[in-house]
Amino acid sequence: MSDSALLELDGLHAYYGQSYVLQGVTLKVPHGAIVALMGRNGVGKSTTLKSVFGIVKPRRGRVLFDGSDLAGAPTHMIARRGIALVPEDRRIFSSLSVAENILLAAGGRRDAIEEALQWFPSLKAYLARPGDRLSGGEQQMLAIARALVAQPRLVLIDEPLEGLAPIIAEHIEQALDALRGRMTVLLVEQNLKWLLSVADYHYVMDHGRIVHHGDSDWLRAHPELIEQYLGVAA
Ligand SMILES: Nc1ncnc2c1ncn2[C@@H]1O[C@H](COP(=O)(O)OP(=O)(O)OP(=O)(O)O)[C@@H](O)[C@H]1O
Ligand SMILES: [Mg+2]
């Protein structure tokens, strides 16, 4: 991997009360790469993203973003530096329409809607529909589009496919492909097959630590790791 990482986590330790959840997470996300973070339920994937975004305050370690340490900084400052989070629960504004959700995220920038439709053309049919009348897949596409129109330098996406139809996985893959090399993405997902085609590089997490990492060819060549750490047959 290239040395010029946009994001580098260096020995992150985090707790929920007494519960020791991140036990020294170290990883790098190079400029323009799509990097996957995978692992079984409860190993600390979401907590890692929350630590980058300032929702969880790491007790030890560094969150280096473009060379400066953001560990412990407030979320609004982290967002201002150019990091966006698409959380598992999506947080769509339910009384606002799709178009309004997009414009709000883009600070009223007029071409934001056109831009969002380039990534997710199927949203065009729902522009006027309120957020609470969207399907899960439509909500997920909107949640990602909304993060992207804010023009962040790094997007953190937590389990975008969870519970959604294969066609949504395809739409999200197309959007990420269109962004490849232009935006940097750290992606948590459990759908291994999808990650193998979408992500450039993979980190495997277990019990609050990174236990393995490598590119898609490396991961395909290690079915035993996939079974051990992801609990699925390769
Ligand atoms: N707010 C919280 N308070 C206390 N414990 C928490 C909290 N959030 C998560 N945990 C615990 O921390 C551990 C790591 O949780 P985390 O959500 O990071 O896992 P994950 O890898 O994202 O799992 P999943 O695949 O189920 O989303 C789990 O044991 C979880 O129960
Ligand atoms: Mg999670």
Keywords:
binds magnesium ion; 234 residues; globular; binds adenosine-5'-triphosphate; alpha/beta; single chain; six-stranded mixed beta sheet; four-stranded antiparallel beta sheet; Rossmann fold
Q: How does this model look, in words?
A:
The protein is of the alpha/beta class. It has one domain: 3-Layer(aba) Sandwich (Rossmann fold). The chain is built from 9 helices and 10 strands. The chain has a 6-stranded mixed beta sheet, sandwiched between helices. Strands 2-1-4-5 form a 4-stranded antiparallel beta sheet, covered by helices on one side. β1 and β2 form a beta hairpin. α3 runs parallel beside α5 and α4 packs across α5. The longest helix is centred in the middle third of the chain and has 14 residues. It is globular. The structure holds adenosine-5'-triphosphate (ATP) and magnesium ion. The site of magnesium ion has 4 residues, from α1.
**Major sheet details:** 6 strands, mixed
Order of helices and strands: EEEHEEHEHHHEHEHEEHH
**Count of helices?**
9
- Rg over CA atoms: 17 Å
Bound ligands, each once: adenosine-5'-triphosphate, magnesium ion
CATH superfamily: P-loop containing nucleotide triphosphate hydrolases
Provide the residue-averaged pLDDT.
94
Taking the alpha carbons of the first and last residues, their distance comes to 24 Å
CATH class: Alpha Beta
Summarize the structure.
With 234 residues, this protein is an alpha/beta fold. It is built from nine helices and ten strands. Magnesium ion (MG) is lined by residues 45-46, 88, 158.
